[in-house]
Amino acid sequence: MKLYGYFRSSAAYRVRIALNLKGLDCQHSVINLLKGEQSSAPYLTLNPLGLLPTLSTDEGLLSQSLAIVEWLEETHPEPSIIPGDPWQKAQLRSIAYLISCDIHPINNLRVLKYLQQTLAASEDAKTQWYSHWIKNGFAALEKTLDAQPFCCSAEPSIADICLIPQVFNALRFKVDMSDFPKIHRIYQHCNTLDAFMDAAPENQPDAG
Ligand SMILES: N[C@@H](CCC(=O)N[C@@H](CS)C(=O)NCC(=O)O)C(=O)O
């Protein structure tokens, strides 16, 4: 398998965590977001939407980080990253979707560029937008969390796979995590585990 990603792409970060939790080998190919390589003609042949990540597999190309995570779960069920009965699985997916559908897309690079370049938003306005949507989502999530040390299961799951990269983004944009103590504790705990540490942006060869 080959993962097309970038050290700071949080959607690629999700897939790196899932691969590590399942102990799967994967080659990595860097698509530099800051250089706009996601919109280059060669990459668009792999992923017509021009977003990271893309996973190249023996069966073909797969885009959308959660589709990739679910495919890894189905093809390599142990250890499970969507454990439990149908209700528990739905709870985990609910957290994963809160982050990946309701927070992440509106803070994506192309959205931020549109705000600044097309709508003439200032750097401050952009940062305010970014923090606002993270705080909005985290405030809701914080209320629903009870289980520790992970989001909603005894072992790391698809929920933590989505949450930890999103907290990384929040910290990068200086969101005050003291308002979200449960989320922050989960972040700190996950980052004691090799699967999460090895997937972290700062530990990728292209970090710089
Ligand atoms: N729903 C997609 C989102 C992918 C996505 O937004 N990727 C970002 C990096 S985290 C990207 O490629 N952004 C490039 C851009 O906005 O131009 C997924 O989960 O894979």
Keywords, separated by commas or semicolons:
208 residues; alpha+beta; Glutaredoxin; Glutathione S-transferase Yfyf (Class Pi), Chain A, domain 2; 9 helices; 51% helix; binds glutathione
Write the layout of secondary structure elements.
Blueprint (H helix, E strand, L loop, with lengths): L1 E4 L4 H12 L5 E4 L10 H6 L7 E4 L2 E4 L1 H11 L10 H17 L6 H10 L4 H22 L13 H15 L8 H10 L3 H4 L11
Helix pairs in contact: 1-3, 1-7, 4-7, 7-8
The site of glutathione has 14 residues, from helix 1, helix 3 and helix 5.
Concise structural overview:
The chain is α+β, with helices and mostly antiparallel strands and 208 residues long.
* Strand percentage: 5-15%
Q: What is the C-level CATH assignment of the largest domain?
A: Mainly Alpha
Q: At CATH's second level, what is the architecture of the largest domain? A: Up-down Bundle
Number of strands: 4
Mean pLDDT: 97
The main pleated sheet reads as: 4 strands, mixed
Name the strands of the widest sheet in spatial order.
Answer: 2-1-3-4
| SS field, number of helical segments | 9
Low-confidence stretches: none
CATH topology of the largest domain: Glutathione S-transferase Yfyf (Class Pi), Chain A, domain 2
Which class do the helix and strand fractions yield? alpha+beta
- What count of structural domains? 2
Give the names of the bound compounds: glutathione
> What does the radius of gyration come to?
17 Å
Q: Give the helix level as a range of percent.
A: 40-55%
Q: What best-fitting shape do the alpha-carbon axes yield?
A: globular
Order of helices and strands: EHEHEEHHHHHHH
| Separation, N- and C-terminal Cα atoms | 25 Å
